[in-house]
Amino acid sequence: MTVPFQKYHGTGNDFLIIHADEHVPDRGALAERECDRTDGVGADGVLFLALEDKFDPPRVVMTLFQPDGATAPMCGNGARCAAEWAMARTGTDSVMIDTQAGTLRAERDGDEVVIEMTDLTFDPDEVPVDADAPVLNEEIEGLEVSMVNTGVPHAVSFVDDVDDVDLEEVAPPVRYADAFPNGTNVCVASPDGNGGFRQRTYERGVEGETDSCGTGAVAIAVAARRLGLTDADPVDVHPPGGHLRISFNERGRPTLAGPVEHEFDGEVAVKSPVEP
Questions:
Q1: Which residues hold substrate (predicted)?
Q2: pTM of the predicted model, to two decimals?
């Protein structure tokens, strides 16, 4: 048996989208198999989306399974891809996205999709990180990081040049550090000379570097503002896959903007949990 999918990416952060009505007995196993870039379709995650178009604006319920087969409560670029998918099906320019980290509003703005992010926090209990106060520029496993949760936890390190960092070497010890009960994504950022930052991110669940990370871009922007490294609004963040823009609305919540592309459609095999 097979189920149809659509392949989308936001600045290189790519996802298979499968309608939640499709019968997939083991979603985690499908994600592990099909996210593999050698033996599967290849992706940073699989989005299972349920569209509820009776609402105004329409709502889409998003569940993300990562390449390790586990779910993640939030994904910025994934949410933007989900929004584009839903807007294309409803003929609207605005949707609400229900994630495990909260409900987001998304809108189309020209060639970009913009989402208002969930509440963010530096509170160590909510990141979570084993600390008595917010972690700002503290050394953990050899890397000086600031900790913020932008839907998922991020350890942000500001460096002179992201290209000089061996991310596959320095990130895993931080990602698995005892200080983080749920693990963490690891971002390195360097100033671009115009108030923005270049970005590289090692993502938990992917267990490697991705071409882009939306929650990571937001983490970089809010950590930079907290540390006084920029007062720009918007803050431009440049991951390897493109350009993201983080603004701060009248409620003080960050918004994440960038392009989304529909790559292609296809079908993937579905196996029952007892099949090899």
A1: 13, 66, 76-77, 185, 203-204, 214-215
A2: 0.95
